[in-house]
Input
Amino acid sequence: MAKKGCLPLVVISLVLLILGFLFLRGPMAHIQLPAESVTKPIGFPLTNTILAAWLTIMVLVALSYLATRRMEEVPRGIQNFVETVLEVLLGLVESVAGPKNGRRFFPVVATIFLFVIVSNWMGLLPGYGSIGLVETEAKEGFIFQEKDLGALKLALIPPGGDKFTEEDLNSSPPLKKGEVAGGFVPFLRSANTDLNTPLALALISAIFVEYWGISTLGIFRYGSKFFNVRSLLKGSLMFGLIDLMVGFLELVSEIARIISFTFRLFGNIFAGEILLAAISFLIPLVALLPAFGLELLVGAIQALIFAMLTLVFGVIAVAGHGEEATAMETHTAVAPS
Output
């Protein structure tokens, strides 16, 4: 019975795969690391990832406004949803850092989590990477079909559309009527596919971790884990050199943490975009559905990892030297690799 029930689904999937491959397969999307500049309003390039980051902020602000404009004692609707998310996050933060430090760390950890997950998920929406400008002076790009709607001109990439390079235009026949060749510059691109956004988040995380440590332990006590000269002052040369070496390694680990944070988030999200572009080129329609589901999961996991590592390193920073082992155990138990 189970096999008979699966047969229609298999047949429909095969038909959709064939139709998508024959009629809906477009050219392979252009992939590049740097974000594309959409405009230069005051001489400063405004990139599509900056626009996407601003849009993410506006969505979060709008969500906050809608959830708090009519606060009720018994929450419902969007207020109930937002309060549930924040309560879960607060419970998680307090379970790791304790009630006192949990409340202190919560605004930063929750902000990082919400920004990253909303940004990652919005990058999967229709329009991201698919609506933009045609750069006619580009030396490589796509052959567009031009549609004149009066005041508005649309350039569409038809299914099975062609890509071109400058050599192709010089060696092949001229473009047909209604065709235009140019590079494609999308208006929006997922903010975390630009290395600058994860780097900015990593720097914010590092600054707050150092601030929490210094404000809790004092600048000299906290700084002693990087520059410990007590043994040297007591006349113990060997242990003094060991302490200096350990402090140097601690300093290197702080810098390496920023690099790790940056490339972990950037690498996963950028690789996801390449995966979706490749699947839409090779096997459109059916194969895209599980790929989008996978990217939703990856986006949520990366947001949780970034936020939780910020939290754990904050816990380690505020712990005294005698409490560092306990903090490290918490780190190992909570932070995903």
